[in-house]
Here is the input.
Amino acid sequence: MNEINRDAAADVALDVRDLAVHIGGLVALGGISFKVPFGAIVSLIGPNGAGKTTAFNVITGFMKATEGQVFFRGRDLARLTPQLIAALGLVRTFQRTSLFTACTVYENVLTALHLRGRTGLFGSLLRLPAMRREEAGLHTEAQGILDFIGLAGRAGELAGNLAYGEQRLLGLAIALGAKPTLLLLDEPAAGLNPSETEGFKQLIRRIRERGTTVLLVEHDMQMVMSISDEVLVLNQGRLIAAGSPAEVQRDPEVIRAYLGTKRAAA
Amino acid sequence: MKGRLGGLLFLAAAATLPLWLRDPYFVAILTSTGIFIIAAISLNLLLGFTGQLNLGQAAFFGIGAYTSALLSLGFDVDIGLPSPVVVDPKPAWIAFLGAVIVSGLFGWLIGKLAFRVRGAYFVIVTISFAEVMRLVALNWVDLTEGPMALNNIPPLSVWWPGAGVTALVTKAQQYWLVLAVGVLCYFLVARMVRSRIGRALIALRENEPLARSVGVRVTHYLVVATVVSAAIAGAAGALYAHCVRIVDPDVFLFIYTVTMVIMVVAGGKGTLAGPVVGGLIFGLMPQALRGTAPPEVQWVIYGVGIILIVFFLPRGIVPGFADLARLGLPRARSRTARVAP
Here is the structure.
């Protein structure tokens, strides 16, 4: 299995093959295949219920696939737990804002740096010099992430007290803490005002510039079309179109899925 | 800083208490309260920091008590081998350490088994575990003497400069012993929860899917927390065995776990000082009421106290008063200064 993928692994971050998810009698995903090249921003769009979040859940190990495979950097992710997948460098954010609400912003990011440390029980009980050095490093890193995201001024605030837009930013900061090679963003701009959305767009671009590949699920078409290298369109669990933003926007099937058929529209 | 100063004052008062309070009865009550506080600290690690309600914490306490008692008394037991297993009496300190290790092993076992299920199922598994342990202690008479109890458990002893090896038999000596072990346990838990491990535990409590998404291995950290929690509860049990010097199957009773839960919840779960404050209040309150009110009234007051705390300070006494202090000092709220490593 690894042999087949070795050549492909060179420039493909994520390789999804015939991925199908059946939930009871419902076909949430009916066998989709796509690739995400390293360094790209790829968007997954589609009407509600098209299977976008299901695809995210399967790729990140939160749900099991009924059929098909997911390869990340050439490695089969089947049967890996979310925490192991995160350790490989594939990290997600959540559609509904997901934070450690009772902790401060700073503690949220520090917690997200879990994979960057290796101190175990005895290290923490004995406060060994190695552990102190590691902690100091993690604190620097957490500060760096907060500066990058633009939440440094809110570091001491409880995450639950942040404004909605700031909470979305913190969700992204937490994901960045796990040092993703591939970052899966589930509707980052949902509920944001236009200027916040614009800020988020810039942030995603800068994340890509730092070498992180991005797979984005988003409803804000203006955002999707302006930052994506490639757009994948899902409808009713099937991939109905893939291509550059311009190509996808011209695709008759995409127009039908979004606007309804002529008959339905009439 | 203020918290640290308060802690030092509290510690100084606690350490010198038998010198200025020359009432052996009261010192003895504080000693048994201290043993319960250590048990509450162990429960708080699970309930407060990982959010897992272990209603079988008394099992670890009892296992610690029985292990330490049996090792220091020695025992022989026929478990179907060609010759019975004979263990000679061990020094009390060895028995104490043995109790910590055996309790920790049981913690590992329960953690491994019970964290396959979570929530209500975990609670049921832990209650059952404590009840099974009680029945074993009650019925395995060859080993535990059953309801006749293990008697004449030797006290712990220390080497003291100038005095040589001294057995800790007076009320004041036992008080200092419990205080020393309690302070040690407090700082072990403090270090643990203020480290990468502690952040992982709190992350699991706060938002498990998010914790998993940033790479926190759920079962691993829950088992680590259970092992440490069980070991500390075992230490408390061993202290109980060597101070009270008699252990019977009642140490596994559900009411002891409930007492620990009340101490932790009233004091403030998920705070380091919570179990200490809650333990002092609910350890001393029954004693304070003993002389002044008939038993029925005592229980009513006890119950009303719990209801008032839950009603007015739902997060517990320590977080409640911390909030009050913060309202009084608005500047204390901006804690951005803390970000420096």
In short: The interface with chain A takes residues 188, 191-192, 194-200, 202-203, 206-207, 209-218, 224, 228, 333-341 of chain B (CB under 8 Å).
